[in-house]
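Let's practice the habit of predicting before peeking. Look at the sequence and jot down your guess about where helices and strands might fall. Then scroll down.
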Amino acid sequence: MIKLLITGDFCPVNRIEKLAAKKDFESIFNDFMDVMTGNDLIITDLECPLTTSAGSRKKTGPHQKANPGCIGILSYAGVGLAAMANNHIMDFGSLGVSETLELCNANGIGVVGVGTSAREAAEPFIFKSKGRSIAILNFADDEFITSPDGKFRCNPLDPVNAFYAITRARQSNDNVIVIVHGGNEFYELPSPRTRKLYRYMVDLGADTVIAHHTHALSGFEIFNGKPVFYGLGNFIYDWPGKRNTGWNRGYVVRLSISDEIGFEVIPLKQGDEKPGVSHLDKTETDAFEKHLRDLNSVIADDAMLEERFNGHINSVAPMYDAYIEPYFGAFISSLRNRGLFPKLMSRRKRMLLLNIMRCESHREVLLGMLERSTGNEKPGRKNSLEGEK
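Done guessing? Here is the structure:
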């Protein structure tokens, strides 16, 4: 039997970065180190470059990076594979990515989900142990996942990409593990579209699908006999403004792979008053298990899942509304939310925007135009595996 441990988001910033500089790795893993032992392979989502580069790229949202010395955290914990298809690995451009790849290589840590071409980024990491060959694939939502100079790119989450990658991996390996960086941030459930896509991956031949990115733990389901985990939450991601919130709760998954796929869910807390990752106490574990059961019940119910996602849309609608209005900013948004500043985009213009976003052909042109006008055009706009010779 092969044991694979998969963690959620790993971004060693703030207090974790300082502990790594002192090589105080014990204070990062605390009593959770017992989970990191006895595994054949540990996989983590490396959600920032490990670099000294100061050259951040142009993008929306925060830029994340950590000191190269933080590679010692992964080595100490025995991490063997870094999943790098995510929305922050390109934050400091090609230099940040290349430094991180060199560090991983020098420390015997494999990488998956990133490359110098679409085909290379889509290549699975092949783990061979105890007579089995396991292909591990890594996809990410298309959110600033290509370096500005086009030298590096992540593997985009696309149904066509998934079809070719999973079916090819299935042909020549005993098992296929899919790791996805995607979903709606801070939302604890998959959208109906996300659930449909991950189930499709199982139908293609994935033995399990495991997601992260949302910074909120989600539930799981068994679909056609295969486990699908919709969000592990954060593993190590220290953030001062998030103490004692859902940001600091998550879990890791230990897969037991033989002719069947078994799994163990191990809850954790991280980044509260005490830095690093730790086990939950009995009361916290009971609360976690109840919460997970509640999430699982929603995931299993079509109507409940749709209802909850509609509620999520309502909760974030003011933010998205502000994005598409011609005047944008915290002050104007607050006035608009209180009815003191009018919405300037007409109903007709909103109808046009809806049509452009819904229609695949219109959306493709709009994306190309926006990429070009913001300097984020993809080299050759080659998104499919079959498009690259």
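How did you do? The chain has twelve helices and 16 strands.
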